[in-house]
Design goal:
single chain; elongated; mainly alpha; 6 helices; Four Helix Bundle (Hemerythrin (Met), subunit A)
């Protein structure tokens, strides 16, 4: 078990807050999920910059951005993992450590998106969103 596995995947309080806003702004959760997914788009490109030219700053910034986006979506574990990867990049540790962290982050990111989409599907099946 990694240090982050004991953390919840999603903070139910944050999800509840977003869901509550659905009554004022229907479709908000769906829109936020899409924005959240796009927040991950530059991570692979930044890792390639690290591999090709030893650029640690791009991955650090990508992980920093993902850390905030994940926290905003209630993805507690992912936010912590991204924060750890950001620290690894900031310390300019061997690229393999950053790449290993990124692989774990990719797996967690996919699980978070699936959990968020499941939440959205459940709400739509109950008729709670437009």
């Amino acid at each position: 078990m990694t240090a982050f596995e004991s953390e919840p995947r999603l903070d139910r309080q944050i999800i509840a807050q977003v869901v509550a806003l659905e009554s004022v702004r229907p479709g908000l959760l769906s829109n936020l999920i899409g924005i959240f997914e796009r927040s991950f788009d530059n991570v692979p490109r930044c890792l390639e910059a690290l591999r090709q030219c030893g650029d640690y700053e791009q991955p650090r910034l990508a992980f920093h951005s993902l850390k905030g986006a994940a926290a905003g979506m209630g993805a507690t574990r992912l936010s912590m993992m991204a924060g750890r990867a950001e620290s690894i990049a900031e310390a300019k540790q061997e690229a393999v450590h950053i790449i290993n962290a990124a692989e774990s982050i990719c797996t967690e990111f996919d699980a978070v998106v699936a959990a968020l989409r499941s939440e959205l599907d459940q709400r739509q099946n109950r008729g709670e969103t437009d």
